[in-house]
Design goal:
heterotetramer; A: alpha/beta; six-stranded parallel β-sheet; two-stranded antiparallel sheet; globular; B: seven-stranded mixed β-sheet; five-stranded mixed β-sheet; 12 helices; binds thiamine diphosphate; binds magnesium ion
């Protein structure tokens, strides 16, 4: 098991023969489009939050290669147990922009019916399992789903994500241990972006890397340059194939950096080191990949303009549509607790509706976080 | 798999006399044969057949892929079950003692209970968590607790507790067929206390319906699990003193069979609720609160709780900690003289 | 360290007007200066000063050994606190949101709560777990929950919830000086809602004593945390309609100030209890049960609960989920017309 | 970091020069006495359970070298956060046999006042922290205590134990991670006895060893022959010294075997492999150490007889005294929940005492486990 950092695209955008996965031109451009669209989607999300039009937002800025490169190695039929910082995967899996934006507004168009804060997506049609806030829980669930697929003889592969902070969770230990014992077809991706909100990596663990934690579970661990989408894709493809062959799980550490603040509630300037920050800004994964495309003659000003145009248009249309969509109806509060509403829930629903019929109901609500 | 959709009720292809734990095993066998999505796992459930023997013979019968041991992690047992359920299986996870479920508490309350709601119904968790609970076997501090109230206070979970062999089978089968996560808590004290007739094969007792264990007119005593027989003994004694006690066996704590409760209390005008757990914020508080909110005008005496003390569970003095006939009698008496 | 033994009550070396969260910070500063066994730690409590700012400036003032960030593990935060307390420190652990406390549930209920009892008093856990809880800040599903009932049902824990800046400081200092583990739950909705006078320096509000927030004669409304001000508003409105409402602010849920509760209900003959948590098995059920057991003869109407619904916490419809003035008014009304 | 199995005493009892820690004769004999006394104590405990005189028992048979060799490397002022299978440590720390046996009976002489099942000891006088049943919780507590000692500048070292099954617990991950990050003076001992009740090691984890899990936390991991008390002592002494020097924690895996059933409630014949079992019986740690003492002329039939005699006499005296000791009084039920009894507890106590004064109270109780 090698723990050196795997890289393919060098700083001036060249990929050495032999190492270059040689993806078809159309695929390369598609990946570039996804990265740019993801970046613009994050910009728009934060802007909407700043304008007070949505309550919260969390960006993946700087980590587009990390999550798109990994998810791109899957088949559409494979499943994702994501964390909250992989929005590009929704675009990769053709989720309509309007549905994504409706989730930000938590309106009637939100597949989750406005029950979670923004960016906690659930898209069954995309085999994208509902995101929860508690850190790490998805890791053990992915192991369990992988165990189930093995029991059934399905050839589904499961990919699950967490951050460097997530490696300290109970479920990191449990999920990887179970996956190892049952040889579950799971790829565990640790997006090491240097921070868990304000806590830096060296306060998260004393281990020399996150990938090395794979040792503890008898599975291979790989460290890859998380800002090099081709390297990320290459190592993940190998892990996915291995899982599909029934050889068990892999832990991949994508070494990247959180360029933005943790979320719209955070101000990283309180704790970020400006120098480190500047260094990483230079390593922007989109710029890096753009260089590579230039060498391949697959990038032009015109192409760039078209990509940005299309993305902005899609976002604008989605925001317009989302803002025209009403909130979920009050009675939806009582749906989906159980498949069938209990008598108790029916009674509580009736009490609320009766009271609303009588007049003003509703407590005033502050902002997140106060 | 059609088998799991049929919401059939009891059909009698003969009955067999068995203990409560044998009925649990019978239910697992029945549903595993019925539905190949059902898998059973936990610590020591395989070759050993479970520390109490609830899964005895299951691995031999269905093989290691349908019934298997896990590493020592409740977090993993439940977290994996959630993933399996989301993917389409019907996991039945065993937690060796309810006292040891806490490492999995996050996966239960944050994940299993909320999956359907938080995903707008896109993803669901049809799974059963089986666990022996309660006192009465000299298990001391950490092999005796009754923490059902934690789960009853968690929307998204159903909580079921049988008190007879027939109900153990019928309710467990109903739980496995349920589309939502069910906490199936087994009163270990009565695992082998007496036997009862249990229908062979198909036998479903619907979740959400209670049982009148004994009819009476003067006072309603509400119980579940191992406390039901204690209350029945007290009722017998009270009868000799000329008091007619109605004993309710809730069977399902969430969702509660409220009509049964209200009808009984409105009839008797008195209510005692008996539970093993620490008194404060125990499930009996909910029963008392419902009665105080919905049939205050029928009450002829205080709503009395006979419960475990507000202390951790002891070892040597367990026999004093557990509510017994004498304490239930005293509780009943209090509803008459106060 | 004598400072920690003195069970002194309020002494007034001047007061300062501050918010509830500023009072929390002031309490931490005061006790850290008072007692060098007090250490403060948790996720992001150091340089960032906490996601809400409760520990702002503490690390600068007391250094990294007294106030430090931890890895992302509630299990570790609480488990380490237990070890520290057993060894003789006075840890004050912050859990970033109460919704995220479950990975530590085992260390809280199986270890911190039981250490004194299971060791026959040989080892103890004088520690405080601080955590923002409750709705009202658009935190949705996982940044809004009120799970105080889980802890109230766990013997060995004390549960404290302030509703004013002065109480936040005085109760937190009392909690840090307490010889047993205290859950100190901070109603985040009112972290910055209005300010109040807070005594500077030494200020202790004893654990176990409630507060009559508003005197009244016709109906007792029991609340705590962010619901107190909602109930006060309702009482004001009711007054205009000619009803005199007494509002109780419990301040301590365990051990409850039962005399205050009983005296009030015996005076008014009516009782409404208001809480944000899901209704079933919430702390309000305990209040209702106590009233139904101990002052049934004084009741002139049903004991009414106004609570969160039995659903997980929503995001968009939060304003309908949280009990508000209209629902409290309806609850009060129910105790008069039923 | 070496992962080969460290051994000192070879199969015929010889210890190669240079490797032999050369402990003083008196110390060697003391260790032997402790091992034999521990074995006899376990035998007596199980016998009392079989006779129905106590409710439960759990033996450490075959693991005497593992727990005595590790704990022997500590100073008396160092602290232990034990699991439930290290009874010899109580003898090493001079806990009176009578107090140990009173714990089995849960009587008024039990330091825990009869609140826990047998073998869940608490002896503050021996810096032996109360044992709890939930697996693993002590590991994080030991890390916390170590952090506290560092903050205070104490030179206390903390030793904590778990089994191979315990490595799958949440607290194994958390305790080692915290200890690593804060360089806590803790020695983590994993007693790998091959089984977690009926679950064999290969179903517990896919990692090649338990010691290797140290990698995940940036601390050294060592594998030692757990049936060789000198080897166990030597590696532990190094780890303890390292911790005391402020260089941080160590993970030690003692490779041993659970010769007896898991506890008085278990029947290992249902799952043990007779051949493996026989192989390990030959590796008995007491026999092994006895051979070594013979070579050093420190063992004789007479010495053996005296050791056994003394142990049996002490046990007999303790059992006699314990059986003459009454149960804790009913009111003790309500003590130690909090430092001061709450009004609620006082009320409940009074209700119980009043009822008892009136007559028969008490439900009948079964056996563990039914
Ligand atoms: C169990 C739990 N504890 C605390 C939090 C609050 N929280 C949200 S994100 C976060 C940091 C996560 O860091 P990391 O895992 O590195 O992911 P990143 O945000 O860097 O992508 C924390 C502490 C939470 N969501 N869940
Ligand atoms: C959290 C938890 N789950 C389950 C149990 C039940 N249990 C008691 S001992 C044991 C096996 C422990 O195996 P190991 O850690 O290897 O220690 P050993 O008994 O072999 O010394 C189990 C599953 C428990 N005590 N705690
Ligand atoms: Mg991170
Ligand atoms: Mg073991």
């Amino acid at each position: 098991m090698s723990l050196d950092l795997l890289t393919i695209i060098d700083t001036d955008g060249k990929a050495p023969k032999g190492k270059d996965p040689n993806l078809p031109a159309a695929e390369l451009q598609k990946l570039y489009r996804l990265m740019v669209t993801t970046r613009l989607m994050d910009d728009r999300g934060l802007a909407l939050q700043r304008q007070g039009r949505i309550g919260f937002y969390l960006q993946s800025t700087g980590q587009e290669a990390s999550h798109l490169g990994t998810a791109y190695a899957l088949k559409q039929s494979d499943w994702l147990f994501p964390a909250y910082r992989q929005p590009g995967i929704l675009l990769l899996r053709d989720v309509p922009m309007e549905q994504i934006v409706c989730e930000w507004f938590g309106n009637a168009g939100d597949t989750s019916k406005g029950r979670q804060m923004p960016v906690h997506y659930s898209f069954r049609r995309a085999n994208f399992v509902s995101i929860s806030s508690p850190i790490g829980t998805q890791l053990t669930q992915a192991a369990g789903a992988g165990m189930a697929a093995r029991i059934r003889g399905d050839d589904t592969v499961f990919m699950t994500y967490c951050g460097d902070g997530g490696t300290s969770s109970n479920d990191f230990h449990t999920g990887l241990n179970f996956a190892g014992v049952y040889k579950a077809p799971v790829v565990f991706v640790v997006e090491n972006n240097g921070w868990a909100i304000s806590v830096p990596g060296h306060k998260q663990t004393a281990s020399e890397s996150y990938a090395i934690k794979a040792h503890a579970y008898g599975m291979p661990g790989v460290r890859v340059d998380g800002n090099d989408i081709l390297a990320v894709y290459a190592v993940t493809k190998a892990a996915v194939d291995r899982a599909r062959r029934g050889e068990g799980p892999t832990l991949i550490e994508t070494v990247t950096y959180r360029i933005a603040s943790h979320s719209s509630s955070d101000d990283a300037s309180r704790y970020h080191d400006p120098e480190v920050h500047a260094k990483w800004k230079k390593k922007d994964p989109i710029q890096r990949f753009q260089q590579y495309l230039k060498h391949k003659k697959l990038w032009s000003e015109k192409f760039e303009a078209e990509v940005v145009e299309a993305a902005k248009a899609a976002l604008q249309a989605a925001v317009t549509a989302a803002e025209a969509t009403p909130n979920p109806a009050p009675e939806t509060l009582f749906e989906d607790v159980y498949m069938n509403q209990t008598p108790q829930l029916k009674e509580q629903k009736q009490q609320l509706l009766d009271l609303m019929a009588k007049g003003a109901v509703g407590s005033e609500v502050g902002h997140f976080p106060l | 798999m059609s088998a799991t959709d049929t919401k059939s009720s009891t059909s009698k292809p003969g009955v067999k006399v068995m203990t409560l734990i044998e009925a649990v095993t019978d239910a697992l066998r029945t549903e595993m044969a019925n539905d190949d999505r059902v898998v059973v796992f936990g610590e020591d459930v395989g070759k050993k057949g479970g520390v109490f023997g609830a899964t005895m013979g299951i691995q031999e019968q269905f093989g290691e892929t349908r019934c298997f041991d896990t590493p020592l992690s409740e977090c993993g047992i439940i977290g994996a079950a959630v993933g399996m359920a989301v993917y389409g299986m019907r996991p039945v996870a065993e937690i060796q003692f309810l006292d040891f479920i806490y490492p999995a508490f996050d996966q239960i309350v944050s994940e299993a209970a909320k999956m359907r709601y938080r995903s707008g119904g896109e993803y669901t968790c049809p799974m059963v968590i089986r666990s022996p609970y309660g006192g009465g076997i000299r298990g001391g501090h950490y092999h005796s607790q009754s923490s059902e109230a934690y789960f009853c206070h968690t929307p998204g979970l159903k909580v079921v507790i049988p008190s007879t062999p027939a109900d153990a089978k019928g309710l467990l089968i109903a739980a496995i067929r349920d589309e939502d996560p069910v906490m199936f808590l087994e009163p270990k004290k009565i695992y082998r206390h007496g036997k009862g007739e249990v229908p062979l094969g198909e036998h479903v007792v619907p979740i959400g319906k209670g049982r009148i264990a004994r009819e009476g007119t003067d006072c309603t005593v509400v119980a579940y699990g191992a406390m039901v027989s204690v209350c029945e003994q007290a009722a017998e004694l009270a009868a000799q003193q000329g008091r007619s006690i109605e004993v309710l066996d809730l069977r399902t704590l969430v969702p509660l069979d409220e009509p049964m409760l209200l009808e009984s209390v409105r009839k008797t005008g008195r209510c005692v609720v008996v539970y093993e757990a620490p008194k404060t914020c125990g499930y009996g508080a909910e029963i008392a609160a419902i009665v105080a909110e919905k049939c205050i005008e029928y009450l002829e005496g205080p709503v009395v709780r006979v419960a475990g003390f507000d202390t951790p569970f002891p070892y040597t003095l367990e026999h004093l900690y557990m509510p017994d006939v004498a304490r239930v009698m005293a509780g009943i008496d209090k509803t008459f003289h106060w």
